[in-house]
């Protein structure tokens, strides 16, 4: 069963990623203005929501391991190609998350939670023992030895933009959510309430403790991704999912759902488009040099999201899936 509300959440997560990635690519320096504060608040949260939604999709699809492995290969190759133009690509990370999640597809819920705990614990141990800054130039956000075996593994597993440890926790958490009765208001309300509570509680240690020796471990920022960031990310994702599912009947009556949902069903295509077309246009205009202000890049991002919304509605008049979604389906379901 496909819940239209989840497609709406997926599009909103995409919009959040556009705001964050456009500002990152345009080298815009954050300030104290509301566009800066909004985009900063979305850093690490929009991408986490996307991964949680992917986990829900895995749980709902219940795809066999063979199909998941073919999709892992597709996303990994697509992600590597994307890395040649956008170093903060998330698609190759998705491939790694999905590969690691295969043993959990039919596992009981307690194993999902055990997996989350183990992933978070291993990530924390790595941050305490290893050099998190290895490979990074924080001034340029360039990862020096990414295209080496050791650099790639370090980046993918430990200190990249969205490393498996601990980001796999988001996917496993999403798989748990996907097993709930998401169509019932009780579950939706619980997700909204308890997600908000978890996200709020995760902020408390950072407010109470200002010791520079431990601040990176208790912060809720995505770099480095400490345990409280994972809790905050899971909480905010659950809250948004629950809230939008609760509001879906209203959005449907207002005829907004029929505009928003098609865009969520093309999240893979739109992700590629926001890099190739969105950032490509900004580069062609010479706007990736730090010359834009935070309000300017915000409005550019919103205009791009609106253009995506219009495109997906028009595309949906003739096609059920987006271009990349169709390609992935055809390439990975050959012989089925």
TrEMBL record:
The keyword Membrane applies. Pfam families: DUF418, HGSNAT_cat. Keywords: Membrane, Transmembrane, Transmembrane helix. The keyword Transmembrane applies. Residues 2-192 form the Heparan-alpha-glucosaminide N-acetyltransferase catalytic domain. Residues 193-333 form the DUF418 domain. The chain crosses the membrane at residues 7-26, 46-65, 72-99, 111-130, 164-182, 189-208, 228-247, 268-285, 297-317. Coiled coil: none annotated. InterPro entries: Bact_Transport_Assoc, DUF418, HGSNAT_cat. This is DUF418 domain-containing protein. It comes from Parasedimentitalea marina.
